[in-house]
Amino acid sequence: MLEIDGSIGGGSVLRIGVGLAAALGKEIRIYNIRRSRSQPGLKAQHLAGLLGVAELCDAELEGAELGSQEVVFRPGGIRKDKLKIKIETAGSVGLVLQTLQLACLAASHSVEIEIDGGGTFGKWAPPLPYFKLVNFSILRRFGYRAEVEVDREGFYPKGGARVAAIFYPSQISGPLDLTERGQLLRITGTSLASTHLRRAEVAERQAAAARELLKYRIPIELDVRYADTRSPGSGIVLAAAFERTILGGDALGERGKRAEEVGREAAQSLIEDIKTGATLDLYMSDQMIPFTGLFGGCFRCPRLTEHLKTNIELVKRILERPVSVTQRESSVEISAR
Question: Does the model's pTM come out above 0.90?
């Protein structure tokens, strides 16, 4: 059984640890889960993802309850082709999908997932449009196809999202080489706001402010839309498509934060990552580490973050694969060979 001390990081230790264990078909025990947090142990979104993966893998679980700081996960085979998950809070739908994305690598068939509840936009988590525009698009290039559709968006505090995703059998066969990004081709994105904010034209203002900063001589296509939600909210996700990769940038609307500030924040984040010469943005670097650990590969990220350091350490401990980290002139190269 794999033994992982969860105090090396936060919730990502559970998500990545259980996801990799499911992909490998190995038992894992994770203890000291979120030990350094003000409210340690499993929260609702962690529990929802854990229970979902356990159901998918027909796994035996110990410690799967709110506040638990220790979990034992014993996966079986993936025989289900449909899965329903309930998130009682505004916890991130994207972070639940992150674990399932790894687990479904072990599936020999397509897996359809329905998620009821949770948030499609939220703090400290990739918004759901990011998965469609960046995560899924990059991994599709290497042979792992997935789709996601949103029937209802969810914002804090009520959440209430309804999301359908499907993961197809993985065809990844070799190293994920992202050492070069090629020419910048276009920038796409989604500027979204709840219908509560239509009168103030929040979605349009977010998009206009982002476009004003993005002065590249390439096509810039931003989808502006409104959605019926249980709580008011807004956000914007941008994606810069290069010949060989995609970089993302996003920002979340908050009470007292002008829509123009939200749009500029997302655009500035994207611009700064483009300037570094990185081949992946910070979010995707976190999410790519487990895949490079499993299949080998190399990429360049803007800088090392605590999340990235944690995920690298998990790959070393769980997969026993060496990972090299090399500081370049304006970016960091990460390689797992």
Answer: yes
